[in-house]
Amino acid sequence: MRRSVWFLLLLQALNWGLTLGRIVKVPFGPLYRVVKTPVSIPCNVSDYQGPPEQNFDWIVLRNHRQSKIISTLEPEFSDPEYKEKVLKNEIWVERLSDNSVELRFKSAQFEDDGEYQCQTPSTDENSSGNYEASVTLKVIPDKLTVLPTKSRSMTSTNYTEGRPLELQCVASTSSPVSTHLSVKWQLTKNGGVTEDILSFTEDDQFLPGGSYANRYQRGDIRMALEKNGIFKLIIGHLQLEDSGVYSCMAAEWVKEDGSKWKKIQEKSTSIATIEVQPLAQTLKVSASGGILTLNKGDEIDLVCSVTGVEDFSVEISWYFSTSPAVDTQSGKLLVHMNLAAIVNDSNFVTLNKISSSDYRLRVQQVDEADSGYYYCAASVWIPYSNELRHKAAEKTSNPLNITVALLDPTYTVQLSSMRMPSSSGEPAELECQVSDVQNADDARLNVAWYFKPIEPDGVARVSVLIAMMDQDWILKVSDQYNERAKKGEVTFTKPKLHTFKFQMQHASASDRGEYFCNVSAWMKQRGDTWLKKQELSSFAVDMFWKIEDPSLSITATEEKPVATRGNTFEMACSISAEHVELPYYSVVIAMNEPAFTDAKDSKKLISLSRDSVVKLEQWDVKDRPEDLVLEKVSDKEFRFRLYKTQFSDEGSYYCMVQAWVPDANGGWSEVISNYSNAVAVAFKTAAPRFYVTLESERPHVYQGETLEMNCTVDLPEIPNTSDVLYEVEWFFQRLPLNATLNPLVSMDQRSVVTYFKDFDTSGISVERTDINEFRLRIHCSDNNFSGDFFCKVAPWIKSETGIWQKIEPQESGLLSVRVDISVLDSFKMPLLYGIGSALLIGILACAIGYCAFPSTSRGRAAPTDERRGLLQKCLS
Length: 876
Hints:
Layout: H1 2-19, E1 23-25, E2 31-34, E3 39-46, E4 57-62, E5 65-71, H2 80-87, E6 91-97, E7 100-105, E8 114-119, E9 132-140, E10 145-148, E11 155-160, E12 165-172, E13 180-188, E14 194-200, E15 206-208, H3 213-218, E16 221-226, E17 230-235, E18 244-256, E19 260-277, H4 279-282, E20 284-289, E21 293-295, E22 300-307, E23 313-321, E24 332-337, E25 349-353, E26 358-363, E27 372-383, E28 389-396, E29 400-405, E30 410-419, E31 428-438, E32 443-453, E33 464-469, E34 475-477, H5 479-486, E35 490-496, E36 499-504, E37 513-525, E38 529-537, E39 541-543, E40 551-560, E41 569-578, E42 584-592, E43 603-608, E44 614-616, E45 628-634, E46 637-642, E47 651-662, E48 668-675, E49 679-681, E50 691-695, E51 700-702, E52 707-714, E53 724-734, E54 741-747, E55 753-755, E56 764-770, E57 773-778, E58 787-798, E59 804-806, E60 810-811, E61 815-820, H6 823-852, E62 856-857, E63 860-861, H7 864-875
Parallel strand pairs: 2-9, 11-19, 21-29, 51-61
Antiparallel strand pairs: 1-3, 3-7, 4-5, 4-8, 6-7, 8-9, 10-12, 12-17, 13-14, 13-18, 14-15, 16-17, 18-19, 20-22, 22-26, 23-24, 23-27, 25-26, 27-28, 27-29, 30-31, 31-36, 32-33, 32-37, 33-34, 35-36, 37-38, 37-39, 40-41, 41-46, 42-43, 42-47, 43-44, 45-46, 47-48, 47-49, 50-52, 52-57, 53-54, 53-58, ...
C-alpha cells in the first residue's frame, strides 16, 4: 500500500516537471455553434519567454487532413482553400492582448466542422511546456423559432390606463444537441429606447428589468410558462409609460468550458404595439335632477352619473356652493363615499349607489339656506397592488341650480311709554308692540332694547344695547345693565305673545336719552339651527327731565370725648345729599396734628370705599394696626373709633366724603365731594418732657483701646421710674461730616439688643448701667470709628389704664470721637521686621562661609574639630 502511494506521488511530480514552462490554452470542447452565426474561438499563451507579443498559427484537422487557416506572423500562411475567405474577412484573427487572440468566423457553415489547433512559435531559450492546444468545433442546424401565437402578425391596440394586458409568444428549438432556452420581453418606447421588462433566464429564474423591479415585486408584472413553448407577459394594470412596441426575444444556450452557459444564438420578434390612453379621457361625470325649484320642507333628489371607468374603484363627493363656479376647494362638502362605499352622511343628507354608474343625493327638509348650486366630483383610483392605489383621474360635473322659495315674515313695531319719570328716582315703563304679523307661523319674534344716552351737548348719538332675547327666548343682559338687573332695578317681561315690556324701578340722570326696540323674526332650519329672516326697529321715545345741581353736607360729632390717654375716641359722620340719585358714599378719616391747621397738611388715616372695603391709608404705627376702626352704621352715617389713645394722637379729626352714582357705561362716576367740621382730641395732661445727653470720659483714645460712652435720659416729670421703659439707638457718622449716617446698635424697651450689619459687631457691647443711663463700649477700637456719635431715646410710659404708650423720641447732641495710633506702636512693627531680617541674613552668611571654606589645605584634610569650632563662632 505504501509503495502504491509513493508511486502516485512520483507520477504527479513527473507530470508537474513535464508541464512546467509555456502553456497554450483553448476552451474545453466540443464547441457547438449554430450555422450562419458568428463564431469565435479564443486562445492564449502564458509562462513564456521572449518578447511580450506572441504570434499564433491556426490549423484545422478534418478527415485526417490538416489545413492551415491563418497566422499572425506569416501573411502567406493560409492554404488556398482558406486564402480567399481570409482576404474577404470571412475568417480573421482578433488580437485581444499580447498573449491572447480569437479566431473568428463571420458566418459559420457546416463544412467548418473540425478540430482547430492553436500553435505558438517558440520564443523561449529552452523549449518547455506545450506550444499548441486543440478544440473541436461542431456546427449544428438552426432550429430556434420565435413567433406570436397562432402565427399572428404584429397588432396595434389602444388600451385604457389601468386595464390589464396579456401578450403571448411561442419559443421552441429542435436542436440535435442538448440546449436550453431563455425568453426576454422588451418594450421599445416612442423615443426609441428599449427596456427589458421581464426575463426567463437560462438558469430558469425570473429577472425583472431595472425600472420594472417594483412592479414585479408587487405582482403587477409577471410571466406565465405554458405548454408548447408559450410564454405569456401579464401586466395587471397598464400605466401611461407602458405605451410602445412589445417584442419577445428567445436565446439558445449550451454548456461548455466545464459548466458555463454559452449563448449560441438569439432571435426576436415584435408582438404588438400598445397605446395607453389616460383614464381622464374616458371618464365622464354628469349631474341630473328632476324638480329644481322647491318649497321649504321639500326634498332635493339628484343623481351623479360616472361613465367610462367601469370596473374601477370610484370615490364620489357632492358639493354645495352659492356661486355657479365649480371648485371643490371653495365649495361646501355635503357628503362623501369612499372606495369602500362608506358614506359620511347625516340625518338630512344621504348618498346611495343605485347602479354601477349612478349615485343618488337626497337632502331632506330644505329651506331657503339650501338654495344654490349642487355638483358632484368623481375620483378614479387604479391599484398598484392588492393594497396600494393611486388616483388616476378626477372630474367634476356640471352645477345644478336649486331654488327654495320662501316668503319672509312681515310685521310692524311700535314703542309706547306707559310710565315716564319726571325726576330722578321715579319708575319708568316702556312697551314694545308687534302688530300686522304675516307669514310668521313658524317664526319666533324676539326683541332687543337699545338706549342712546344724552351727550354733554344734549344730543343722543351712540346706541347702547340694554338687553336682548335670542332665538331660543333666552334673555341676555348687557354688562352695563347686568348688575342692575340682578338687583331687580331693571326688568324685562313678555306679557303677551307679541308684546314686550322694559321697566326701571328708579330712573337716574344717566338713564336720560332715547329708547327704541328692535324686533327680529327667526326661522328654524335643518339641524336645529336658526336663520334671521326679518328685523325691524321702532321709532325712538325720549326720556328726559331737568336736573338740579347736587349738594353734599357732612357733620362730624364726638360720640365719646377723651380727656386722658389710653381711652377710646369715637366720632360719627352724618351725611346729607340733595339732587344726587341713589348715591353710594366713600369715606376717609383724616387728622391734623396740633401744630398744623391747613387741610393740605392733613394725614389720611383710614378709608371705607363705596363697596364697604376698609383700608389703612397713612397710619404707619406698626404696633397699633387694630386700634383704628371705621364702619358703616346706615346709608348716611359712618362711625370712627380710635382705641388706646396716646399723646401722638392729639389733633383735629374730620370726615372726607365722596358721592358716587353708576354711569351709562357700567362704571361709577363721582358726583360731588366734601368734608366735615373738625373734632379735636386734646388730653388734659400733656406729654412729659425729657432730655437726652451723650458723654464720654475719654473721647480721644488710641488704636486697640476701649472706646466708652454713656447715653443719659433726664425725665423729671415721672417720679415713679417703674412706669417708664426706654428704646435706645446709637448712630455713627464717619469723618468728614458729609459721610453717610449709619445706625450702629439698638436696645428696645424689653432690653433686646439688635446689631446692624454694616459694622463688625464682635467688639461692640451695650449695657444699662443705671435706671436712666445706658453705656456703649467699642473694644479694640481702630481709626474706622473716628467720627461723630449720637443716641436717640423713645420712652414708653405706662398710663392710668395700665397701657404702655410710646412718646416721640429725642436725640442727643453729637459726640466727636478720635482714634489715633501711638508712637510706640508705629515703630513696633518696623522694628520687629528689621530685627527678623538682620537675623535671617546673618544665619545665611555663616552658612555660605562654612560651605565655601576649603576642605583641604596643602593636600591634607582639615580637622573636624576645627571646622566645628568655626561654625560655632559664626553662630555666636
